[in-house]
Amino acid sequence: MLKVLIVDEDAESVETGKDRLLEAGYDCNRIDFNDLATELTTYLPDFIVLDLMNGVDPEGTGGKISFSEIWGIRFRPIVIYSSNPDLIDDMESGNANHPLVKRVKKGSGSDETLKDIINQFKPCVEGMNGITEDVNKVLNTTLRDVAQYIFAQEDISDKETAIKHMGRRRVSVLMDDSSMLRPKLHPSEQYIYPPLVSYPRTGDILIDTAKNNNSPESFFVVLTPSCDLVKVDGRNPKVTEVLCAQCEKSDVLFSKAQVKKEEDKLASELSHGNIKEYLPLPEFPGIIPAMVANMKKLRLIPFESIGKKEEGKLFTITASIDSPFREQIAWAYLSTGGRPGVPDRDCSLWAKNILDNCNDKGKKES
What we know:
Blueprint: E1 3-7, H1 15-23, E2 27-31, H2 36-42, E3 47-50, H3 61-73, E4 78-82, E5 101-105, H4 110-152, H5 159-180, E6 191-192, E7 205-208, E8 219-222, E9 241-249, H6 252-255, H7 263-270, E10 278-281, E11 291-302, E12 306-307, E13 315-321, H8 325-337, H9 347-365
Parallel strand pairs: 1-2, 1-3, 3-4, 4-5, 12-13
Antiparallel strand pairs: 6-13, 7-8, 7-13, 8-9, 9-11, 10-11
Helix pairs in contact: 1-4, 2-3, 4-5
């Protein structure tokens, strides 16, 4: 049963809303503001209904403090359920505009609105809980296996640090392995979204913010090696411009790459990675359209014009590409643009010579 934590000093004001949620099959627990931090880690709610006013609190200070606690301790979808929910706009963080934060003004019919929003959040919460369960399983396995090794090694003096280092690496690997154990990855799982760092890396998907976000031609794929682009901890990039491949509509696979418009034939081609100079990239709904990166249509983009969306750069890092798909992009470029140019040769004569030699050898052996 999914759990709803209601944070409100006035139990009577949320009684009807709580009843509606109970009728809809949710477990509900109402608490005072002071109990929030404890309940987040013991009750482990799936949804939080938050009033903003803790007693006489015209600015909603109590609710804003509680909102920050939820954000930092256990983030789950939040419904601001208050007589003046828009007070949350005063928060400097801007987190109140997150898609999983909704507002309901207390009053006639607000209990039904509250229930409807919680129901809308339900599929997302079930997905979040699934991820949490997977991570906890991996973490438990890691701690069990790594700790026993570290504990038994007398020559490891700093066992605390050793467990942390080995544990982090093992968790990372096991999470990757657990995803690979599924029969097939969803195509969009190759994307890492939002991107992890503010500087570009090989395979990152950039968008020209001055163009139409829905157009594949607005997107570029970074080809410069990641090691030349690092900008962190005092390190500066080794290049001033970033080599990128221009993206195009997927239609070119049929009009220029001569791929047949048949699902099984197309699926076979997609399994190879790049199709001639075109590298297909899957749709990431609402973020990246279905498109291809043209490894022969290149552009140099100034490094300093690339960054995260909030930095206001001309080119925004929309998403990163996970390994080994990042290496696949590098190979697609190398296999297309890295071939050495050689003079034309008489390949017909060459082929005839090979066939003649093979035929002569076959006659001798028979």
